[in-house]
Amino acid sequence: MVGYFRKFSKEMNKEKPPEPLDFFIWTVEDVGLWLEEINLGSYRQIFKENGVNGEYLEGMSMFTTEQILRFIRRCHMKWGDFITLCKELRRIKGSDPLPSFALFISLFLLLLLLLLLLLLLLLLLLLLLHFSIGSMYFWVVLVVKTTQGYDDLLLSS
């Protein structure tokens, strides 16, 4: 009879999603239920295989960019799904779990902007060099032709 109640209790817990207030003590199974609740149930098995529990989710706020990328690769997550996961974590946690991810995106965009500026500067330098060489060629030709004209004048006199 006790086994029946234990089994019944487990069945009841499977139907009931975990309480968000204490998500840091969630088990791997609780995380799986929560993933189903936020429409990320396709990751339930891989999260279970990687031992992702509430404590792990809590620690994600301290992840470095490298750790975030490793987590995404290990769990075969799409970027959009990872963003959804983080938004839902922020919602239940009441704070942003991903400052390093936001920093990563900001630094990536800054690097991209610097690269574009560098390419623009290189293009400008090439144009300047092209026109200065063309301009120098023009002046050399002008001086040579002018000198030839004077030579012809001097020789004919």
UniProtKB/TrEMBL annotation:
This is SAM domain-containing protein. It comes from the Eukaryota. The chain crosses the membrane at residues 100-133. Residues 26-61 form the SAM domain. Keywords: Membrane, Transmembrane, Transmembrane helix. PANTHER family: STERILE ALPHA MOTIF (SAM) DOMAIN-CONTAINING PROTEIN. The lineage of its organism: Eukaryota, Viridiplantae, Streptophyta, Embryophyta, Tracheophyta. PROSITE patterns: SAM_DOMAIN.
